[in-house]
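In the laboratory, one determines a bound structure by crystallizing the protein with its ligand and collecting diffraction data. In a computational setting the workflow is compressed into a single prediction: the sequence and the ligand go in, and a structural description comes out. We illustrate the idea with flavin-adenine dinucleotide.
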Amino acid sequence: STSLVWFRRDLRAFDHAALHHALRQSQSVHCVFVYDSAILDSLPRRDRRVDFIHASIAELARELRQLGGDLIVLHDDAATAIPRLAAELGVDAVFANHDYEPQAIARDAAVAQALTDDARLWFSFKDQVIFEKNEVLTQTGKPYTVYTPYKNAWLKKMRAEPACLAPYDIEPHAAHLAPPRSPAPPLPTLAELGFEPSNLAELAIPTGMSGGAQLFEQFLTRVEKYDVARDFPALKGPSYLSTHLRFGTVSLRYLVRTLVDLMERGGGGDGAPVWLAELIWRDFYAMILYQNPHVEGSAFKPAYDAIAWETGPEADELFAAWCEGRTGYPLVDAAMAQLNQTGYMHNRLRMVTACFLIKDLGIDWRRGEAYFALHLNDFDLASNNGGWQWASSSGCDAQPYFRIFNPITQSEKFDGAGRFIRRYLPQLKALGDKDIHAPWLVPRMLLAQHNIVLGRDYPLPLVQHDEARKETLERYAVVKVVD
Ligand code: FAD
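The predicted complex, in structure-token form:
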């Protein structure tokens, strides 16, 4: 039999569930990636993610050719292009890996239906998480809504079922890859896709399978210190693997396997279990989205939808200032500059900026979520929504609504010497370590000595945190009764 493997958020040619199963079950396996116009059409013409995918696809195509196969690359509406290609190639079945986002579920259902109508089969597999859907349930058989017991159950299941980490081999079955068509058409250029290059190459963000492997190798040399270093944005603490996890240029099973092996040998220090816990957060939010698709667009806890957010031109101006890093709070502004310039934002700062938008500016969390969705290289609907609902206190297992980050205290605690702030706000470089967190509290004379005029070189604060805090507590009073 012949089959087609459709690559989506799994851009690698090793340890790949759908490819493995297709190779084992068919004599001849074609591979395809579709630049989906249903997704690409809505993006700005310069998008770091498109660059990342473009580079990663080139590497995937090279790798598949080295294995004796090929990658067909289309630019089309995937929902119709896949059944059409399946018919052109005359394959018996299409193989893909599960995607848990509501739109992807609907698209895959449409593709599966079209294939069935055409007497072809659709198979899909778990690949991007360790445990999915309802694999980890409470003792009463319900999906978890609280992280810690979920994590404990997840770890228990992983230990009880080591096969969940086993690799899906490709190489031993590579002889079943269909050889390249001759002549093989060149891969589409960025320009042909309608995009201009972003600054991804200047940022030297490693792409593709080789980039993911390189980042993981580097991270393993510092994983022991992750538990402490991860909270300080000026340090190289985290792994920077999120974009690779998003596009599947790394194998999650391989990451977890490596980590568990390391811990079993007594390595990894205090950092390894903490990092594993972060990967479990990722599984948790994917499960939450799958089980509760209403979180896309509304609060996980419905009572929070009653909150009245600031609207109108003044709120629009506050939102624009937040987006552009002009709030007057240096840590918030430096974080937004990091996002705008690089497409990455440190996890601590995602929490700080999200909390600031919602609880200092009174803006609807969905506006912030949408801004992150547009700008994050690692944008993932489940994790982004989970993070925003956590910050707005409307999510499962979220921060309680009365826990409101103080942006100055956060700055003093996690960027005490102002190293991160200085990197992104060079106009504040000359301020002392103590002064850099709240420039408006610095005597004007001292600012003048450094040639800094607030309102000219750096904004005055948009709001006073203490006042904003009181307003937020009032705003959230509508949910107090049910919380
Ligand atoms: P590391 O610290 O090295 O963590 C390793 C991996 O664990 C990450 O790559 C990621 O896959 C996973 N992970 C870590 N923290 C979380 C978390 N809180 N929730 C879910 N998974 C986690 N992560 C995304 O991948 N995409 C998003 O769109 C996204 N949006 C967020 C929005 C907000 C408001 C917040 C508070 C967090 C968001 N996160 C998101 C989670 C987290 O901030 C990033 O995963 C992390 O900063 C990525 O950097 P890293 O790979 O160096 O992380």
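Residues 98 and 269 are 34 Å apart (CA to CA). Keep in mind that any predicted model is a hypothesis to be tested, not a measurement.
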